[in-house]
Amino acid sequence: MTSNEANRADLGKDPARVSGMFDQVAAGYDRTNTAMTVGNDALWRAATTRAVAPKPGEKILDLGAGTASSSASLARSGAQVVAADFSPGMLAEGKRRHGSIRNLSFVQADATDLPFEDGEFDAVTMSYALRNVNDPKKALRELLRVTKPGGRLVINEFSTPPGTLFRAGYRFYNSQVLPRVARIAGTNGDAYDYLNESIRDWPDQKKLAAWIREAGWTEVEYRNLSFGIVALHRAFKAA
């Protein structure tokens, strides 16, 4: 495998290739996200934190935490937050930026085989990461396993804008503009070609809600952010 091939994941979502790709974009990841979302990433992160509703004394898993920006936002509540990711490069960048937060810890973890006990967390969350797992249904079952009875799930993920015209413009932006923005921001543009492909291939809001129910979660609901570019799904584990 050449170095260029190692940089580029595909829809097979081989864990080693996806992890390697994120390792290589870690340093510029947050900067590129801010550029390509025109600053909306901060608004989406705030909405996710409100949906999780962290409280002091709770234990929260932020899976697919990346550089731990969302984890840090959750930890400011006083909750004990575990930032977990399968990319060591992302975790290293997260530790560099947020390692001084005392109630924030970092764990390398596979979303389909979590290294945590049953019922360990009051809340579990993933932001823009479930889409990159090669078996997302299994990941949803694993998240249910490690959540306490009565605990909650929040998934923030790219989704399908319901408006036809807006959806067409959004897809054009993803395919033609987004990789160029990534290259201008100094990040591997090939990784953002994969991002576009993975978003296009990802199920819409209703189908993801159905997957969450199938995994055993209850009271599943979702709401769109930014006209459906992303959607927040929220659910609970039966008490």
Automatic annotation (TrEMBL):
Q: Which biological pathway?
A: Quinol/quinone metabolism; menaquinone biosynthesis; menaquinol from 1,4-dihydroxy-2-naphthoate: step 2/2
Q: Which GO terms describe its biological process?
A: methylation
Q: Does the keyword S-adenosyl-L-methionine belong to this entry?
A: yes
* Keyword list, A-Z: Menaquinone biosynthesis, Methyltransferase, S-adenosyl-L-methionine, Transferase
Provide the binding site for S-adenosyl-L-methionine: 67, 85, 110-111, 127
Q: Which GO terms describe its molecular function?
A: 2-methoxy-6-polyprenyl-1,4-benzoquinol methyltransferase activity; demethylmenaquinone methyltransferase activity
The similarity annotation says: Belongs to the class I-like SAM-binding methyltransferase superfamily. MenG/UbiE family.
Q: What is this protein called?
A: Demethylmenaquinone methyltransferase
Q: Which organism is it from?
A: Microbacterium foliorum
